[in-house]
Please model this.
Amino acid sequence: MARSTARKRALNTLYEADEKGQDILSLLAERIAHPGAQTPLPDYAITIVRAVAKYLVTLDRALADHSKGWNIKRMAVVDRNILRIAAWEILGNDEVPDKVAIDEALGQAKTLSDDESLSFIHGVLSALCADKDQYDLEAEAAERARIAAEKAAAEKEAAEQAAAEQAKADQEKAEQAETGQTETGQANAERTSAGSEPVDVPGPVPVAATDNVPGIDTDTDTDTDTDTDTTVPPLASA
Model:
C-alpha cells in the first residue's frame, strides 16, 4: 500500500485520539484489533502513530518553536496532527526526504484544511527543516524514560517504607497488648498463692431488678397489717 494512504490512515487515528482526549496507543490497539469496515491499518500507518506517541513531547516542542508564537494547543486538531506526522518524518525517519514529508503534509492540508492553514503548515515545516539538527528524538525520549523510571522507583520505595513502618507499629501494639496480659496473669498467680482473690477486670455494676422500678414496692416488710393492743383491761372489784 502506498505511503500516502498510510499517512491518511495514521492521520485518522491521531485525529480521533486527539479529539477524544484518548491515549494514542490505546486507540491504536483498538484499531489494530477491530479495524471495522476499513481494511487493516497499513504497517507504515502503525509505525507513524507509534512514533508520534513516543516522541510527542519533542515533536510538539519543535513545532511550537517554529510556529511564530502559536501554541500547539491553539492549532486546529487536524492541522497539528498533520504537522506531527511530517515533523516525525523530518526529524526521525531518514528514509523520507524532507521535501517529500512537506509535500505530503501539504497534500493532506489541501483536502482537510483551508488556505490559511496550508500556508501556515508550509512555513512551520520549512523552518523546522532548517533547524532539524537541534532535536534528538531518541536522546530526549531516553531521558524522559529515565526520569519516569526514577519517579516510579521513588514512589515504590516510599510506599514500601510506609508499609514497613505501619507493620512495625502494628507489631509494637500487639507486643504491648501481650505484655499487659502477661503482667496481669503473673499478678493473679501471685495473689492466688498468697490466698487473695485474683484480679479481674471490673465490669459494669449490675442493677437490682427492682431498683427504681415504678410500681414495685422495695420495702422488705411485706406485712401491711399493723399490730394493735388487744389486752383486756382488768375488771373493777365489787
Q: What stands out?
A: Residues 208-238 have pLDDT under 50 and may be disordered. The CA atoms of residues 57 and 98 lie 21 Å apart. Helices lie at 3-20, 24-33, 43-54, 56-65, 77-92, 98-112, 115-130, 137-193.
